[in-house]
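Project outcomes to date are best conveyed with an example. Our students and postdoctoral researchers have been running inverse folding experiments weekly, and each run begins with a structure described purely in tokens. The record below, which covers 526 residues, was selected by the lab manager from last quarter's runs and is presented without edits.
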């Protein structure tokens, strides 16, 4: 039997109004997740739905177990007016990812409105399944696992040129993304901290994507991060996973005429496996100054105008030379020695970091005549060849005793020379020199002041540098990837600050080096 009354326009309006009225009265504050079972590399959407007076809340504190917020909250609001009744609703959405396999949970959440009303939203639990694809570095195995579990074929693999090394030996670690999906964009969202390593970033800006075939499926392969690490401790050291987030375009139906142009966009995350490095101690024996394949070069000693004898010395090779001590005399020196620190130059390539460190030795002879400088020596340890003494041979030259700094031998005035006129001439000359050099001096003083402001106290240097970047509208993540002198300089600053913050080196020993690196960064070009 057909009930005509329910098909009339007036009846339909009445039914719709009643539906909206009852719908508005049944919706309450809730805590929900879009899925209760996920993989360890999946993300979930957490939604906090608020109503009435609780819509004044802009953000809530989410108690999380085995979860990490990736982004949010994003907010959507709704206002309805039904039969003179105003209903307000707000939804806060957070994107989160699990930290490990097992049970994860959100909540309970305690809410408090501006009017003083209280409500508690019950806890929601999520089961996180282990990701077999995240337990291997074999690209084919990872791809098969992703396809078998109907996940997007996008993943990251980590490799090291060696997994067994000596303390201080250079290891090159590379992270590579494999992509057989339709990726709109991707980014590194979490890089390993590397507390037990000295690190040097190796540029990847010039890396080009390669096309590879895995189990019959074509994929793109791209190196996204490469670093040289130098172990600071012995034992089994772990390089934590690197996490990559990507926005994937999933096509709806390729069988339809417009299926190629239709789809949905989803956010996923992938992470590499942890990487274990077996670090062996240096074999017992005499002291070691540097670890790696290193060469030493010494210039010829020179004395000019009765001053100190100067000799340029450099160490270079595939090693960490930033904190290497200066070469030492193999025997006694007939005089005093001062050491001037030079710059550290780093050449970065896919094979690793090659460093060169310079020093200038100033020797003040204690007598005139024949003067012999003993050999210079550095104690090195080569992983391939063991202990080696890098040596520059003894040098002999004829010298005059170096005049003490600050002591001047007076010169008698000639009869024609007036001391008063000479003082006036010197004053005029000094003013002229000051006038010519005023701008460079001001610039140098300004740079020195800026460096000191950014690096003192050292505990606040990182925060001050980040504030400096924000004031200059520079993105720190982009700067760390920038293939330029400026990018190299900033990566050097961050590497040294990381070492200080994790107590790998003493603050007092590194203050000057950090100032040098910050000055290089301020003077560098993009």
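After processing, the design step wrote out the following sequence:
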């Amino acid at each position: 039997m057909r009930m005509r009354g329910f098909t009339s326009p007036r009846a339909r309006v009445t039914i719709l109004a009643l539906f909206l009225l009852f719908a508005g009265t049944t919706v309450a504050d809730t805590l929900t997740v879009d899925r209760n079972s996920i993989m360890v590399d999946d993300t979930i959407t957490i939604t906090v739905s608020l109503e009435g007076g609780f819509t004044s809340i802009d953000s809530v504190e989410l108690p999380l177990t085995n979860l990490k917020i990736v982004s949010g909250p994003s907010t959507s609001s709704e206002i309805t007016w039904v039969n003179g009744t105003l209903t307000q609703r707000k939804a806060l959405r957070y994107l989160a990812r699990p930290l490990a396999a097992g049970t994860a949970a959100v909540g309970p959440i305690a809410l408090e409105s501006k009017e003083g009303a209280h409500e508690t939203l019950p806890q929601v639990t999520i089961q996180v399944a282990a990701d077999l694809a995240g337990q291997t570095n074999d690209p084919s195995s990872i791809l098969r696992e992703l396809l078998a579990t109907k996940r997007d074929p996008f993943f990251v693999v980590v490799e090291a040129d060696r997994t067994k090394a000596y303390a201080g030996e250079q290891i090159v670690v590379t992270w590579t993304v494999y992509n057989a999906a339709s990726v709109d964009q991707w980014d590194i969202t979490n890089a390993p901290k590397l507390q037990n390593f000295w690190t040097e970033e190796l540029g990847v800006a010039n890396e080009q994507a390669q096309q590879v075939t895995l189990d019959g499926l074509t994929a793109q392969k791209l190196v996204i991060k490469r670093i040289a690490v130098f172990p600071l401790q012995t034992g089994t050291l772990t390089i934590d996973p690197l996490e990559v987030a990507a926005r994937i375009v999933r096509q709806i139906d390729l069988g339809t005429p417009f299926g190629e142009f239709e789809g949905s966009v989803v956010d996923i995350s992938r992470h590499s496996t942890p990487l274990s490095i077996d670090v062996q101690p240096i074999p017992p024996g005499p002291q070691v100054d540097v670890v790696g394949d290193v060469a030493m070069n010494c210039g010829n000693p020179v004395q000019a105008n009765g001053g100190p004898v100067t000799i340029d010395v450099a160490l270079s090779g595939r090693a960490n030379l930033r904190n290497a001590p200066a070469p030492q005399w193999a025997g006694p020196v007939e005089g005093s020695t001062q050491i001037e620190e030079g710059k550290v130059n780093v050449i970065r390539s896919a094979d690793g970091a090659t460093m060169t460190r310079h020093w200038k030795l100033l020797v003040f002879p204690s007598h005139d005549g024949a003067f012999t400088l003993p050999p210079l020596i550095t104690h090195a340890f080569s992983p391939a060849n063991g202990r080696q003494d890098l040596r520059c041979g003894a040098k002999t030259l004829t010298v005059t005793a170096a005049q003490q700094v600050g002591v001047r031998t007076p010169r008698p005035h000639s009869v024609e020379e007036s001391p008063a006129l000479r003082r006036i001439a010197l004053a005029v000359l000094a003013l002229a020199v000051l006038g010519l050099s005023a701008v460079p001096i001001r610039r140098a003083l300004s740079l020195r002041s800026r460096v000191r402001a950014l690096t003192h106290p050292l505990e606040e240097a990182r925060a001050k540098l980040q504030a400096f970047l924000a004031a200059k509208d520079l993105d720190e993540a982009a700067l760390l990837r920038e293939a330029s002198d400026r990018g190299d300089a900033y990566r050097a600053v961050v590497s040294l600050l990381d070492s200080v913050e994790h107590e790998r080196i003493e603050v007092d020993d590194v203050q000057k080096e950090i100032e040098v690196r910050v000055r290089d960064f301020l003077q560098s070009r993009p």
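Residues 73 and 193 are 26 Å apart (CA to CA). Residues 1-7, 11-27, 406-418 have pLDDT under 50 and may be disordered. The training component of this project remains on track.
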